[in-house]
Amino acid sequence: MSLSLRQLRAFLAVADAQSFTGAADQLNLTQSAVSMLIRQLEADLNIALFVRSGRGAHLTEFGTSIRPTAMRVLSDVQNINDAAADLRSLQRGHLRIAIPQVLGCCWLPSVLGAFRQQYPDVEVSISETAGDGVTDLVGRGDVEIGIGPERPLVNGVVADKMWDVPMQLIVSRHASHLRDNKPPTLRELQKMYWINYSDDFSELLHRTLLGNPGSPRTQDIRVLGLMSAMAIIGQENYVTAAPAYANIFAGVFGVRFLPLAGPASKRRFLHYVRDKHDLSPAAATFLEMARNSGPVESMLDR
After folding, report:
1. Which of 38, 54, 211, 225 lies in the 20 to 30 Å Cα band around 289?
2. Alpha carbons 113 and 99: distance in angstroms, whole number
């Protein structure tokens, strides 16, 4: 048995109009098409639904008993269609994203504000984490998309490029021996005490700048996140490299941002999603807005 929605619609239309002719007008079909749909439905159920007479068609006892069920089925189907339409038009939905804390502070408010202005009915949940933790949240399914610096992929997660972000050297504002607006020399960089707040990026720094690819140097220290690193640099004789958009915190922590030359001067930022999972309309729309509104050079002079 395979009942169709067309059969149920014809059944309810005939029941309402008590006439095949009236149902045909309501459904914009011919009378013969409506009659055929009812005959098919009765054959599938192996029971009569209408008593036909010269003055119309009236429900049998069984037809009367199933009429509320048929109405609920069509109502549920309509609700599904309405829900899908709402999601496609972003009249509802849930945007779940993971993002490093500093990127969330410096960049996210502007793009999220534009998204919320256009789609105020979409629920938004933001998970802040260290850059190394973005892929883990995506892989566990805690969020639908993650945005952050390039990291090794965890199982079940794929990535695509968002932006190339300039990296700069963060030093104390009291470090007068460093020249403003000029990249420090390699010799100067190797003499500095470094703060490592990202395992992956620290490895790149040690490999390309500091000449010690095997392990961190004993004079360097490691902290959990960039905010803590900037706070320490403002008080102590340490440096680190960070995305240039973080310079909005320079005055807060008493630090300066200097140009950084060489392989570590730019960082690829990616978006991360679960493999073989289609993005929801909310996530896909936000991701497109985010890709076109990245932390580019025009944002760095604020």
Report:
1. 225
2. 16
